[in-house]
Write a structure and sequence with these properties.
little secondary structure; two-stranded antiparallel sheet; 2 strands; binds zinc ion
């Protein structure tokens, strides 16, 4: 008996504007810091992904060079 895998990947919701540190929704989209925990948030200018790795030179998602 073969077992068919019917597992579907759950549709991942795009994290649009959530603090990567405290998971709070960011009120100000594009704000350079989180209004809840005051952590500075570096964003990719292309896909707006929040970068948590401070040593990262490129976006982990689209590979765009990050501006500091
Ligand atoms: Zn936060
Ligand atoms: Zn990106």
């Amino acid at each position: 008996m073969k077992e068919k895998s019917m597992k579907k990947k759950p549709a991942k919701k795009e994290v649009e504007c959530r603090c990567p540190y405290c998971e709070e929704d960011l009120i100000l989209v594009g704000a350079p810091f989180c209004s809840a925990c005051k952590m500075v948030i570096v964003r990719c200018t292309m896909c707006l992904t929040a970068i948590t790795d401070k040593d990262a030179k490129t976006c982990s998602r689209c590979g765009e060079p990050l501006q500091q």
